[in-house]
Predict the 3D structure of the following.
Amino acid sequence: MKPRVCILKTDGTNCDQETLFAWELAGAKPEIVYMHQLRSKQTSLNDFEILTIPGGFSYGDDIASGKIFAVELLTFFRDQLEAFVAQDKLVIGICNGFQVLVRTGLLPFGTLDQMHAALQDNSIGRFECRWVSMVVPESPCLFTKHLQGREIMLPAAHAEGHFFSNADVLARIEQEGLVALRYSLEGVPTESFPHNPNGSAGGIAGICNKEGTILGLMPHPERFVMEEQYPNWRRMQVCHPHGLQLFEQAVAHF
């Protein structure tokens, strides 16, 4: 059976259709679910095997990016979230979705209602939209385990992607091997612009939880699921789009 994927949509979400298409290509059975459908109990997170929080500008990024979305999840669906994660089902947050996961506390340490990090304004002080190279380090992440040791390309588009925390939290993330993706230059992690579009320490582009079942990343895998989406596709001949592989690995898990 194809795993069912909940693509959770709210006001300001704008990457839901691309994400739906990506999951369909990967062999899943995705469904766009509006927040009001969960609140009215028309559906439940328990009906799905994978939860996706897609990119966009949820609630206009008022207060802070992903903040209102995170508060809504914790206020109305905390029990469902806890049960979902406890069953080792998969969760992926892309761009704004990554911001939401960090603000709920699901990343990096799975502590709901306790934030240990944030995604703040890009160091360059502006919105950045560009393709970025990343190395895939060893980690427990189920979405990237088949890519570990390789370099991949994905498009990034964000203004608040600088992964930030205090030295103790960053050290713990590194010690527990929770970094799933790092911005890179010629295969070496980098903090320098433009190869690192936001200035994240250690080149952090994505992190996972210790079980590897939750992934948050700033670049957009759903925007590289067809060969022709790569700007230099005729010369580079990337026959197996890197973004698609993340979705396929999640489907293969089931």
